[in-house]
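Practice problem: predict the structure.
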Amino acid sequence: MKRYTLLIYLLAAMSCAFAQDMGETWFEQANTAYNSGNYDTAVVLYEKILATDMESVPVYYNLGNAYYKRHNYPMAIYCYEKALKIDPSDNDVQANLAIANQAIVDKIEPVPQPFYVKGWRNTRAWLSGDQWAWCSVAAFALLLVALFMFLRGRRMGWRKFGFFMGLVFAVVLAVSVVFAAQLRKSSSTQDQAIIMAPTVTVKSSPSVESVDLFVLHEGSKVDILDGSNGWNQVRIANGSIGWLETDKMQPF
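Answer:
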């Protein structure tokens, strides 16, 4: 039994290594196709990489660029948003997302956020989830050093320094852990979506017979609040809420 278990593990490892090699090959081929102007081929190859669950910022970013070149702005926006869920600090993705958003119809003014909420989100976007996790590890190590200085320092000055630095690193540790957890949860939760249909009418309830509230166009982003029988309750940036059919959007 143990031999069969070991064989299964070996086969799984070989499959993962093979898939990774193929992913790298497809990525290089896709980049070559993109640089040659063969955007359709590039899209197919980037999508093949994602189909093997090898998600990454470069793949989504390049795929978004290929869709943009094909004038498929909703899918370009979707890919950029997926990339930002992995790493919200990527400036290139942010810039290209802003350009793609200029090509869609809806220009929705967001509800102003309190300064502390905006500051919290902007600070969290400085690093990716993995980078915040490493930051927490470093802060914990430095906290131990500061604690050692406080407990074992021979001079009062060193002990005071260790105490105050310990407080600083404790705060950094707590914030880093919270940021890393929030970004990890965000990357694994499909709580937003991009409208894919050319025009959709947002309803007052999950029914085609319900009252029309407002209209959205392809490329607009919505927050998903709830779901029921093929419908999603959504909220747009200005705070308006309504119901949309699930097949009219692409969640991320």
